[in-house]
Amino acid sequence: MAVRFAVLGELEVHDDAGLVVLPSGKLRYLLATLLVNAGVGVDADRLLDVVGGSPAALLTAMTRLRRALGPHRDVIRTLPNGYVVEIGSDQLDLLEFRELLAESHREADPAREAALLRAALDLWRGTPTALAADVVADLAERRLGALERRIELELELGGHADLVTELRVLVAEHPLRERLTGQLMRALHRSNRRAEAVQVYRALCDRLADEQGLDPGPELRALADQLSPPRVVPSELPADVTGFVGRAEEISALEELAGRTAAISGPPGTGKTTLAVHVAHRVRARFPDGQLYVNLRGYSPQPAVRPGYAIARFLRALGVAPEMLPHDEEEQVALYRSLLAERQVLVVLDNAASTEQVLPLLPVAAGCGVLVTSRDTLDDLPARHVALGAFSTTEALGLLDQLVSERFDLASATELVDACAHLPLAIRIAGARIADSDITDYLDELRGESRLTALAIDGDEENAVHTTFSLSYDALSPEVRRLFRLLGVAPGVDFTTGSATVLAGAEAAPLLERLVTANLLQHQDGRFHFHDLLREFARQCCLAEESHWRAATRRLAEWYLAGSENAAVATNTGLHRTRWPEPAGTGREFTDSASARAWVAAELGNLVATATAADAGSISWRLADALRGQLVLAHLQPEWALLADAGLAAARAADDELAQAVMHNSLGALRWTQHRLRDAIVQFTHGADRYRELGPSDGLAAALHNIGIAHMRLGEADLGVELLTESLTVARAAGARLREANALSSLGMACVETGRLIEAERHLRAGLALTRELGNDYTTGNCLTNLCHALREQGRPAAGLELVLEAQRLYHLTGATRGDLVALDELSSVHCALGLHDQALAYGQEGLALARSRADDMFEGRFLNRVGLALRHLGDARGAVAKHTGGLAALTAADDLTGRIESLLGCAEARHELGEDEAAARDAAAALEEIERTGLRLHEQRALAVQRKTGSRDQSRDPVRQ
């Protein structure tokens, strides 16, 4: 009868009849000691230490052990000075483990080596319980080494995606094991989750510093350097002009001012922007941390750029994630200046209208430089001022010579530049014209009166510019002139070949090329834009000559709208969107969410300009609705606010109740993200009132849902549950199935927070089934995490673990920026409920670092609570109090009442363990007061338990929890 022994876990003996029952106590340790030394033998003196007695006691113990082994007693043989177990390697898991490791070391094929290591590791059933501590430590180290080698091989074989979850658990179990941390970082990085990889590294750094006062080793630091996103160095300067001529004195002065603020002022057409950009390129090496550029549109037909909008754009260019942008404009200015305080950056502020527009954009760091251009002198701007006038005759002739390869007689050239009033812009346009025509004919035209002279602004310089514009315009073919005119009235800051083609109603690429050749349009990186004077000239031409321009701009607006709605479908954010009639035109189509997001990012300025145009009408609110999902996920609040405000104004002007409801709902969501819950409720309620007039709809269900969640957050639980229930009813009546799934998920979570756990599970399982059927990953992730929470609170955390791991994967797929925080929050909680407190602590610390990096008060507070709870279970009650106290402050700032209750109870439980029952009772009483006031009864039993333990509760009054 074959026998098999196992020591890698609980000590077990099996034969053909099944498990062999062994006596407990010393005999098990005696057998385990012999098995660890199978085939070698153990001295009697060493075995005496195991049985703790005399030689006679050892003899008695050995007799009892052989009797317990029954027919297998002969595996133990007596030696002259001890005993030995003689068995084959297939009869002991430890021997098999060692043989498989040895075989793996000899294996050259990585896949085969990994398979051998997997087989060896599968022999382990847990921590050995019958072996001496030093033996256990040695075996555990061998096992861990084999595990690390297996993971290393699987990483090399491309198995990174499947390793992430396993490695997270291992890192939680061995938080200071740098090789495992490095492997997790690499697995995350190769899964396109670089930010998470960096967070794992930072969590290890914090732990090493806190516990050992050390930094990670050089190998891990080198890996972190490879994976960390490089410091963003913006390079936003427009292209430098080819063959720059003149302005030597001004260039010298501006170069001397590099590192300070310089303001270039002068009339239109004098080349202020060209000079600023040229100087910026000359001195850019002095600013190794980058160059920022913005056209403030101070004198453009388009609305001027607000300072707050420009700062938000600069912050993103400097590498600040959109979700980390402060909501308050003053805080944005402070962040902008603090970032630049550490850097040497050149800032070019082009076409400023006023000092007020410029001041918030000025850095205060000594190492930064600023170049401002304006038609105004900006006398009250704290800067060195450089006034720009027309070119001297020498400079003007030099520019003409640079532009035109053919040599002209001095008299003709002088007459030409005089006619251009020595203005660089006019000379450039004239030079482009005579490059392919006769200068004499052109001069004859200049001497005559252009048919568009009436469009010129008073003043010689402006007249010269407009005359030059007119002559170049007249020389174009009719179809090129028409496109030029239409571009002048198109909303937006620039154009692509695609948008110009839509505007013209014909292929625009060759027409755009001709306009660039004529110096009437500028081209960079696949996009085209006007000088502001040329845009105004084109606009005037259009208004004077083009009778159907409104149809063309409407066609472009419809194209932008169709593209935006296609992008919304491709990204599938799961946020409510109204079903409007199909757009009149067709727009860009997308095969995946990445290309859709890229198009919206590139066209966002034009989309906002289209939506905010005075005559946008329904395009305004429909663009705002189509873009909201992407603006929410990308945290682009300035653009969101512009679109929603414009959409609401247009809807009111059109007296469109549905559009007003949609825009109020959008503004409510915006207020929510700004932590202005009362203001959000006002907007949501305005939307709901208008929706009600139109009958049951997805929009009404969405508005009621949002109001309900806001009331839950404010601690008005009964009202919140009532509104969420109504939202569910309306969604079902309207046939809005995704909204129904959202309502079920949120209602389930509300039931969790109010302590109705069985009802919560019912709602959440129904919502999960529905959202899986609909295939919406984002809402499925929400249902999964909420269901895990409900199961955990029911005392069934093991049933929820796989759910939250799936949710984490889905959040990553959808690009939901807060999904990773939601998943880490629940992962920490569920591991704590499973008794895996080291893992819970690791997830909590990872989430805390991520929340702090995003300046998210609510999740910072929640993760402080998770870390505090894990610390208390690990025996650090004092540290737990500190974490929960910090969590209370953060969650108070974030108006998270459920989180506040958790903080108070965490403090109470930890203080009770410290013997500080009076303080514990106070915290528990404060938590109960919040629970009674809000109806958020999830943690009521915890509070009552603390009161009972501290003797401050009448148990006869305790309620029964569902």
Main attributes of the structure:
single chain; 962 residues; mainly alpha; Arc Repressor Mutant, subunit A; Serine Threonine Protein Phosphatase 5, Tetratricopeptide repeat; Rossmann fold; 7 domains; five-stranded parallel beta sheet; 43 helices; elongated; disordered C terminus
Structure description:
- The chain is mainly alpha-helical and 962 residues long.
- It has seven domains: 1-157, Arc Repressor Mutant, subunit A, CATH 1.10.10; 162-229, Alpha Horseshoe (Serine Threonine Protein Phosphatase 5, Tetratricopeptide repeat); 248-387, P-loop containing nucleotide triphosphate hydrolases (Rossmann fold, 3-Layer(aba) Sandwich), CATH 3.40.50; 393-474, Orthogonal Bundle (Helicase, Ruva Protein, domain 3); 478-547, Arc Repressor Mutant, subunit A (Orthogonal Bundle); 657-735, Serine Threonine Protein Phosphatase 5, Tetratricopeptide repeat; 833-962, Alpha Horseshoe (Serine Threonine Protein Phosphatase 5, Tetratricopeptide repeat), CATH 1.25.40.
- The strands form four sheets. Strands 8-9-10-7-11 form a five-stranded parallel sheet, sandwiched between helices. Strands 1-2-3 form a three-stranded antiparallel sheet, with no helix packed on it.
- The longest helix has 24 residues, at 133-156.
Low-pLDDT segments: 449-460, 956-962
* Spatial arrangement of strands, main beta sheet: 8-9-10-7-11
| Structural domains: how many | 7
Strand residue percentage: 5-15%
Class by helix and strand content?
mainly alpha
GO molecular function: ADP binding; DNA binding
Domain AAA+ ATPase: 258-401
GO biological process, one term: regulation of DNA-templated transcription
Pfam families: BTAD, TPR_12
